[in-house]
């Protein structure tokens, strides 16, 4: 049974998902707005262009999100989106790109469990863990 992370934004979902697509790869397979669906006339004018559902597909997995209704957003806490790059260089590139405009909570560095591990909160408020640990040799 698949488990997916669903993020909430304060009107910045489209910009955040554009960044995530550009940095992580994958493709945005959904970006639905209230103005795109029948009956959208009932939604407030400021909500018509907000994102009511977005989905970024990454190697068969999904990261999903939406903008919160006005006044209902709260900054995420108590979790982090974990991303496992396929090389140390990719970990460094991704970490630097996501950290731009955000805050680093643990610099990317070698640890006893990983060749590269770091934590940050990106400029859109999403907490991330970037963890590159090469596969253990079979023997």
Automatic annotation (TrEMBL):
Top-level taxon in the UniProt lineage: Bacteria
SUPFAM superfamilies with a match to the protein in the record: Glyoxalase/Bleomycin resistance protein/Dihydroxybiphenyl dioxygenase
Gene3D superfamilies tied to this protein: 2,3-Dihydroxybiphenyl 1,2-Dioxygenase, domain 1
Domain PhnB-like stretches: 4-130
One Pfam family from the record: 3-dmu-9_3-mt
Name of the protein described by the UniProt record: VOC family protein
Organism: Teichococcus aerophilus
Organism placement in taxonomy: Bacteria, Pseudomonadati, Pseudomonadota, Alphaproteobacteria, Acetobacterales
